From TrEMBL:
It comes from Polycladomyces abyssicola. One of its GO terms (molecular function) is oxidoreductase activity. Residues 12-260 form the Amine oxidase domain. This is Dehydrogenase. InterPro entries: Amino_oxidase, FAD/NAD-bd_sf. It holds the Pfam family Amino_oxidase. Belongs to the carotenoid/retinoid oxidoreductase family. CrtN subfamily.
Length: 433
């Protein structure tokens, strides 16, 4: 008899966990409250364009957990490598290559020659784990020993990889852990041909082909517990029983679900933490704007634009172009409702680098408070464990949980770790039957 698993939440974490366990012979039911799968990786079609709610840059591609899903489950991933030759920094009065490769480091004007050497030395020290940071010291403070231009560049890099306007607040050990992983790869950034939709469809396909069930518009509203176990979850009209439960829903949803149980205090801490939010402004154009850039980061404004359609031509009608601009927000800016100002700033960056975009604009999508990561990795904020000692058969995954990397990598890796744990105890649930 196969073990039963209920997965709550059909975002990237829930889908990948559900697909992997179904593939390994578990009887899996996935419950998603929305009409469509994907969560924050949902694809929104509009006037012939496919807007991804969140973009699909995969950092540290060679080491990404997606590679494990590719090999193990035969998930199809159409990797599209980032084009370093088309990536630039806008420093206000001039643009200069982004130092994403050794060749580009030589070409860039963001550092003088002496600091270029120091930068290369920093990379080597990070790779060799000579630089590890210090517990309790944020990276901004830790890097004060470095010359200002070098410190500034390292913080600028962190802004883009952590999607934050407050890179100086990233814990220094996390910073070096992240970059030792990223610098060790041949493909630091890659996109996905077919966008997130291809990954969502891929996992859903593996799940259903292996006997799994997907139920959308099924919001889980209550959990039943007994002693140290979850015994069931309640949907709209149905109660789902299982041996294992994987909750791939954010901490605020978890607190609501577990609010009436003795486990509620476990989730309270993670509800207090602030999410990582940005302003996103996608534009769908009827024809391409000629430009030397597929990626440009305006350092002063902390806004970056990616030509998504350069990497994923399935998101546009023939001859069109789809670009995504992201403006980072500080917590203060969020509290002071500065999103409207950011929208105007983004438009000015589009004007500067893609002149004429307004004349060929067909569709746009603006999100003034998009949650890129449910728990932002700054200060003393901690990611949630994937398992608590006091609940025997409940597991947790998502970009608010402990795992590798940042953003979707946390969703995929926490889901992978959770399924590893379930697979390691295979059969034990029925030993007493
Ligand atoms: C603008 C933007 C840009 C981004 N860019 C990148 C990028 O370039 N690279 C990258 O790696 N990542 C990026 N991300 C982040 C990435 O999109 C997320 O990390 C990832 O999609 C999170 O997936 P998840 O499954 O962990 O969580 P979610 O997507 O939040 O999934 C949770 C799911 O649970 C469902 N749910 C909630 N409550 C219930 C309930 N009670 N019952 C049933 N279902 C429920 C929700 O509807 C949702 O589908 C970006 C995000 C944004 C917003």
């Amino acid at each position: 008899m196969s073990e039963k698993v209920v997965v709550v939440g059909g975002g990237l974490a829930g889908l990948s966990a559900a697909a992997r366990l179904a593939y390994h012979g578990y009887e899996v039911t996935l419950l998603e409250k929305a009409p469509k799968l994907g969560g924050r990786a949902i694809t929104i079609p509009m006037k012939g364009f496919n807007f991804n709610f969140g973009a699909h840059a995969i950092y540290a591609r060679d080491k990404s957990v997606l590679r494990k899903y590719e090999h193990e489950l035969n998930l199809k991933v159409n990797w599209r490598d980032f084009s370093p030759k088309k990536a630039y920094y806008d420093l206000g009065s001039f643009t200069t290559p982004m130092p994403s490769t050794l060749e580009r480091l030589f070409q860039t004007k963001i550092l003088d020659n002496k600091n270029k050497l120091r930068f290369a030395y920093e990379v080597i020290k990070t790779l060799a784990h000579i630089e590890r940071g210090e517990d309790g010291v944020p990276i901004g403070e830790y890097l004060k020993k470095e010359p200002e231009p070098l410190r500034d560049l390292l913080l600028t890099l962190a802004s883009s990889n952590f999607f934050t306007n407050e890179p100086e607040k990233i814990p220094s050990p996390l910073f070096f852990q992240y970059y030792s992983r990223l610098f060790a790869t041949h493909h630091a950034v890659a996109y996905i041909g077919g966008g997130w939709q291809s990954i969502v469809d891929g996992f859903a396909d593996i799940l259903t082909k292996n006997g799994g069930r997907i139920l959308t518009k099924e919001k889980v509203q209550q959990v039943e517990t007994e002693d140290n176990r979850v015994t069931a979850v309640h949907g709209k009209d149905t109660v789902y029983h299982a041996d294992h439960f994987i909750f791939c829903i954010p901490p605020k949803e978890l607190l609501t679900l577990f609010g009436e149980t003795r486990f509620a205090p476990l989730f309270e801490e993670y509800n207090r933490y602030v999410p990582n939010q940005v302003v996103v402004y996608d534009v769908g154009l009827s024809k391409r704007i000629e430009s030397p850039y597929t990626y440009i980061y305006h350092k002063g404004e902390r806004v970056f634009i990616t030509d998504i359609s350069y990497y994923d031509e399935t998101c546009i009608p023939e001859g069109g172009q789809l670009m995504q601009a992201v403006a980072y927000l500080t917590q203060e800016e969020i509290e002071q409702n500065k999103a409207d100002e950011k929208v105007a700033t983004i438009e000015s960056v589009y004007d500067k680098h893609f002149p004429g975009w307004r004349d060929v604009l067909v569709a746009k999508r603006i999100s003034k408070r998009a949650t890129v990561q449910e728990i932002k990795c700054i200060d003393d904020q901690r990611l949630m464990p994937t398992k608590f000692y006091s609940i025997a058969n409940a597991y947790f995954a998502g970009d608010w949980c402990q795992g590798e990397g940042q953003l979707s990598e946390l969703s995929f890796s926490s889901a992978y770790n959770v399924t590893n744990r379930i697979l390691a105890h295979r059969g034990e649930e029925h030993m007493g039957d």
